[in-house]
Amino acid sequence: MQVIATLTRSERQWALIILLVLFALGLALMAAGRNDPLAGHGALVMIAALAAIFAVISGYFTPEPGDERLDHYYDEPSKIGLVLAMAWAAVGMFFGVWVAALLAWPDLTFDAGWASFGRIRPVHTTGVIFGFGGNALIATSFYVMQRTSRARLPDQLSPLFVLFGYNLFCLLAVSGYMMGITQSKEYAEPEWYADIWLVVVWVVYFVIYLRTLARRNEPHIYVANWYYLAFILVVAMLHIVNNLAVPVSFGSAKSYSLFSGVQDAMTQWWYGHNAVAFFLTSGFLGMLYYYMPKRAGRPIYSYRMSIISFWGITFFYMWAGSHHLHYTALPQWVQSLGMTFSIMLLIPSWVSAGNALMTLNGAWHKVRDDAVLRFMMVAAVFYGLTTFEGSFMAIRTVNSLSHYTDWTIGHVHAGTLGWVSMITFGAIYASVPWLWKRPAMYSTQLVETHFWFAIAGTIVYVFAMWNSGIIQGLMWRTYNDSGTLAYSFVDSLIAMHPYYIARTVGGLLFLTGTLVGCYNVWMTIRTAPRTSTTGAEPALAEQPLLQPGE
Amino acid sequence: MEKFERDPHTGYLTTGHEWNGIIELNTPVPRIIYVFLIAAVLFSLGYWVLMPTWPLGTTFTKGLLGADQRTAVSQSLKQAALDHATWTNLIEKEGYAQIQGNPQLMETVRTTGRTLFGDNCAACHGREAKGGKGFPNLTTNAWLWGGSPEAIAETIRVGVNSTHPETRTSQMLAFGRDGMLQRPDMENVLAYVLSLSGKTTSDASANQIAAGKTVFATNCASCHGDDAKGKTDVGAPDLTDAVWIYGGDANSVYTTIWGGRQGHMPTWESRLSPLDRKILVLYLIDLRKATP
Q1: Which are the contacts of A409, defined by CB distance < 8 A and separation ≥ 6?
Q2: Could you give the CA distance from residue A490 to residue A475 in angstroms, rounded to a whole number?
Q3: Which of A381, B27, B217, B233 could be joined to A302 by an S-S link, Cβ 3.0–4.6 Å?
Q4: Are residues B102 and B145 in the same domain?
C-alpha cells in the first residue's frame, strides 16, 4: 500500500484507531437499525472500515518515511482525490445521461424501483456536484494551498481522513437514494447520520486549512486561498443549518427537519443558492486563480479587481437565495431583497470573469495552441454568461416566465458544464503531469478531443434547454380567446420531447469527452515518464520550502 | 522582500508579491466597473423605496407603490372571472340542449374543454379520450353508465368505486378465483361471450357455445342483461359490441371472468367546479359526435 508507506508509525496507529471507531459506529448503526434501511448503511460503513483496516495492516510494516519527507509537499491526497474526481465524473455523468434519457423515454427505468426518476436524479446531482466537484476541490485545494503558502500540510493522516471520509459520505448519499433514503431537500438529500459524518470531516478539513495557512512562509495569503477558505467555511455553515433535523429514532434513517412551511423553503434555498455560490463558484474560482495564471504564464490582471470581486461575491450571494421562491407563499419583501441583491451580484461576478480573461492578455496564442488553457478560458467565458443569465432570471418578471421550466436546467448546466467542469478539467490536465512528474499528458491530442466533445455537448445541451424552457414557459401562459389556458400540461410535454432527445445527445457528447479524459489521465499515470528528468513543467514539489532571499 | 516590476505587456506594476511563480498586477479598477456598481446599487435603492423590501420586526417597509403580490393575484383572478362571465354565465344557466344549439358557445367549450380534459383526464383516458387498457374509450356510443348529459355529469361528479359517499359501484365478480364457476363452465361461457361479438376460438364447438349460454343466463345476465347488451345502472358493459375496456381477445376475456374487474374513476366534485364539470360533459358529448 503506497499511501500507507507515507504515514509515520504513530499515524498508522491512529489510522487503525479511527477505523476501529468507524467500524464500531457501523456496527451500532446496523444493530440499531436492524428493522430499517439504516442497517444497509451500517453494513456499508463496516465494510468500508474493514477494507481500510486491511489496507493499513498490509502496509503497516513498510519502513517509515524519514524526515526528508518534510522537504516535499505532501501530494498523496491530491493524487488520490483527482483520480476519484474523474471516477465520480464518469459515474455521475453516466447517471445524468440516464435521467435525461428517462425524460425522453420513460420506460428506461426497466421497472426497477431504484432506477426511478426520483431516485437516480439525485444520484446524478450528488455524483457530479459532490463526487466530481468536491473531490476536485479537496484535491486541488491541498495542492494549491501548500504551494502558495510554501508550507507543507500539517501531517499526513488528517488530509487522508478528509478525503476518504468525504468519499464515504458521497457513497452513503448515492446508495441511500437508491434505497429510498432521502430528506427530500434538493442538494441536501442525505439523512441525519450522513450529515453528522460530513460535519466531522468538514471541521477537520477547515482545521487543516487554517493550520497550514498559519504556518505559511509567504507574507500574504494568495487570492486562491481566500476563495478556498470561503468555500470551506460557508459550506460548513450552510450544511449545518439546513440539515438541522430530529431523527425518528437512532434506529431509523428518517428524520424531520427543524423547519417547516415557508421557513423550510427559505432555509432550503438560502442553502441551495449558496451551495451554488460557495461550492460551485467560490471553490472553483480558487482553482481558476491558481491554474490559469500558472498555465498562461501571466500575472493576475488586477489585484484590486480580485478584492472587489471576492468581497462582492461573498457579501451579495448570501442574500440572493430567495429569488428561487418568487411568486410563492414567501413574503414579497424577502423576494424583493433576493432580486435586488442578485442584480448587484452581477457586477462582482463579471469583475471576476473579466479579471480572468484579462489575465490571458498576452497569452492568447497559448489559448489557441493549448487545449488545457482553452478549457480554462472557456470556463471563464461561461462563468460570465451564466452569472449574467442568473441575475437576469432573478428579476421577478423574467422569473415569472422562466420559473419551473427547463430554462432553469439550461442555466444550471451552462454553469456546471461550461464553467465548473471546464475549469476542473483544465486544472486536472494541468496538475496530473505535475503531480506524477510526467513531462505532459499521455496524449495532448486526446485533451484536444475531450475539449471539443465537452464544448459541443455543453452547447447542444444548453441550447436545447433554452428552447424548451422558453417554449414551455410561453405555452403555460398562453390564453385563448375565451380567456382560458390554450395548452394543457401534456401539450407542453409533447412539445418538449424533441428537446429532451437533444439534451440526451448533448449529455452523451459531454460524457464521451469525460471518458476520453479518464482514459488519458489513467494512461498518463500508468505510463512511466518518457524522460528520466522532469520536462516542461518544473517539479514544483521539489522546490525548497524556503526560497532564498526571504 | 517585495519586488515591484513592470509587466511589459500591459505596462502595469506588480504588487511585489510572488506565490509559487504567480504574480499579480496592481492594475487600478477600471472606472466603468464603479459606474456599473453604482448603477446597480442605485437601482436597488430605488426598488427598495418603491417596493416592499426591508423587515421591521413584525412588519416591513411597504414601498411607495403599495404593491402587494397577494392583492395583485386576487385582483387578476377577479378580473379574469369578470372577463369570462360573458360565456360562463350562459353555460351555467342554460340547459345542455340550448348550449349545444349555440355554435359560438360550443366553440368555447371545445377549446376550454380540451385543456381541462388534458390537465385532468388525459392521464387515464388519453389525450384524445380514446382510452387504453383498463380505461374506457369515451368517444364511442358504448357507455357503461349512460350517455345522457345528466348521466355523464353524475359519473364525473361521484366517480366509480371512488371515495365519494354516493360513488357509482362497479363490480365484475371474480368467478374463477372465488370459485363460483368451474373451469369447464368458464371455458364454455368464454366461448359464448366471444361468439356474441362474432369472434370464436378455433376449437369452440356449437355445443360449447350452447352450454355457455346457459351458464351466462344463470350467472351473468343479472348484470349484463339477458341479451348481454349491458346495464347502465350497474355499469356492466355491452358484451356484444366491438368495444372492450380490458381487451376482447380470448386471453383477456378469460382473465376478466377469472379474476373480476373493478375500474376506479376518481370523484371530481371537490376538485373541479360545477362549471368545469359541465364544460367537460359538453366537451365529451361533442367529441363523440365529431368522432365517427
Answers
A1: A465, A469
A2: 11
A3: B27
A4: yes
- Give residue A94's identity as a one-letter amino acid code: F
Same domain, B89 and B148: yes
Give the residue-averaged pLDDT of A338-346.
97
What CATH number does the domain containing B208 carry? 1.10.760.10
pLDDT, one tens digit per residue, over A266-320 is 999 999 999 999 999 999 999 999 999 999 999 999 999 999 999 999 999 999 9
Tell me the sheet residues that pair with B14. B25
Chain A residue with minimal CA distance to B44? A340
Q: Considering Cα of B43, then B44, then B49, then B51, what sign does the dihedral take?
A: positive
Q: Which residues of A touch B10 (CB under 8 A)?
A: 301, 361-362
The domain ranges of chain A are 1-65, 76-534
pLDDT, tens digit, 9 for 90 and up, residues B83-129? 999 999 999 999 999 999 999 999 999 999 999 999 999 999 999 99
Taking contacts as CB-CB distances below 8 angstroms, the residues of chain A near B119 are 488-490
Please tell me the distance from the alpha carbon of residue A332 to that of residue B291, in angstroms, as a whole number.
49
Residue A39 touches partner B, C-beta closer than 8 Å: no
Give, in order, the Cα–Cα distances in Å from B278 to each of A195, A376, B97, B212: 52, 61, 12, 43
Chain B's closest residue to A494, CA to CA, is B127
Q: Domain of B20?
A: 14-60
**Cα distance between residue B95 and residue B101, in whole Å:** 10
Contact A341 B44 (CB under 8 A): yes
Model-level pTM?
0.92
Nearest CA in chain A to B112: A484
Domain spanning A76-534, CATH class? mainly alpha
User: Which chain A residue shows the shortest CA-CA distance from B87?
Assistant: A482
- Taking the alpha carbons at both ends of chain A, their separation in whole angstroms is 38
Whole-angstrom distance, CA of residue B173 vs CA of residue B257: 7
Chain B CB contacts of A351 below 8 Å: 29, 33
Q: Answer yes or no: do B132 and B103 share one domain.
A: yes
Q: Within a domain: residue B32? A: yes
Alpha helices (runs of H) in chain B, residue ranges in sequence order: 31-50, 69-93, 96-100, 103-120, 122-125, 149-158, 183-196, 206-219, 221-224, 250-259, 274-290
Same domain, B146 and B284: yes
Instruction: State the complex-level ipTM.
Output: 0.89
Are both B188 and B236 inside the same structural domain?
yes
Question: Are B185 and B249 contained in the same domain?
Answer: yes
Residue to substitute from A490, A494, A497, interface B, most B β-carbons within 10 A: A490
Distance CA B138, CA B126 (A): 10
* Residues A412, A420 contacting (CB under 8 angstroms): no
Q: Are residues B175 and B206 in the same domain?
A: yes
Q: Number of structural domains, chain B?
A: 3
**Chain A from 378 to 437: CB within 8 A of any B CB:** none
**What number of other Cβ atoms are within 10 A of residue B214's Cβ?**
13
Q: For residues A436 and A414, what is the distance between their CA atoms, to the nearest angstrom?
A: 32
